[in-house]
Amino acid sequence: MMIHEIAPEVLDNQYRPTAPEPEDYVLFVEEAEVLARITEDTLDYDRVKDLPADTADLTYLFDISGRKFFLAGRKPGREAAYDALLEERKEKGLARIRRREILRFAPRHLAYAGALAAQIGAWYENNRFCGRCGTRTVHSDKERMLHCPKCGNIIYPRISPVIISAILDGDRVVVSHYAAGPYRHYALIAGYNEVGESIEETLRREVMEEVGLEVENIRYYKCQPWPVTDTLLFGFFCDVKGSRTLKVDKSELSDAIWLTREEAKEQLTEDNISLTREMLMVFSRGEEPK
User: Which burial class, exposed, middle or buried, applies to 194 when counting CB atoms under 10 A from its CB (0-12, 13-18, 19+)?
Assistant: First the structure.
């Protein structure tokens, strides 16, 4: 089950600015990290009733199964009170957790809520001023959007399309290690969509650039929102065409290899919350779309 699949809970991400109520959740985001109360492998967040009045500006985020979530921020003229509130929450046991790390906690819907809050909070923080004229931006009261009151520039949350590609040669699949970054497990070939490309063209280009293979019989599997990197992942299975020799781009990957179905199964962990891990699981079972 991927992280965004939170059933029986239901995410309603329509932007509905509304007044917070005492039992609503409040999330603090600092430098794309979330403040949460951790107990072993579970997490929780503050409620509105836990905070002193008039110490934070609360911005509506989303609703999960009727429970509303708000993002805490600094009130103009009350910055010192907010900073003191942050320190007080940390003293009372709230810890800073990175987006990727928060996804391993339970319950799943609160973990996903934390990652989404970090994504949205970072977007707000990175767009406090207009990139065109430098004027402070203003929140829309109708949709999740920022706009410039001076030049009219409009800014929506950044969502970057990315392909995830399981390249098959019968009962083998290509996996790779990234040359940089914190993720150290084997992963499927992935890459960002570029201007002017279709998703299928992105797949062919990325596969050729990273491992030097041509592919055919591209078939769509499913997609996944991934708040860790502000991306929307598109998963595909495809078949190798021509040479099976891997020519690894060392600037992107430290290595790449072919794995059998049994070897792919051995790479799976209990934390299979991503599209890459699900696709490897599907391949290991021989259940990939033909």
Answer: exposed
**Alpha helix positions (H), the chain:** 79-91, 99-102, 108-126, 199-211, 261-266, 275-284
Looking up residue 179, the CATH number of its domain turns out to be 3.90.79.10
Total number of domains in the chain: 3
Domain that holds residue 143: 127-157
- Among 9, 16, 56, residue whose Cα is nearest residue 35: 56
Is residue 110 domain-resident? yes
Which of 74, 109, 125 is a domain's end point?
A: 125
List phi, psi (to 5°) of 268: -75, 145
DSSP 193-261: PPTT--HHHHHHHHHHHHH--EEEEEEEEEEEEETTTTEEEEEEEEEEES-------TTTEEEEEEEEH
Q: Which two tokens stand for residue 288?
A: 């990939």
In this model, does residue 64 exceed pLDDT 80?
A: yes
For 261-276, write each residue's pLDDT tens digit.
Answer: 999 998 887 666 899 9
Tell me the two tokens of residue 201.
């063209």
Identify the domain boundary among 157, 178, 204.
157
Residues 289, 218: Cα–Cα separation, whole Å: 10
pTM: predicted TM-score of the whole model, two decimal places: 0.91
- Give the whole-angstrom CA distance, residue 134 versus residue 61: 25
The residue behind tokens 């299979």 is: 272
The CATH number of whichever domain residue 56 belongs to comes to 3.90.79
Looking up tokens 């039992």, which residue turns up?
Answer: 23
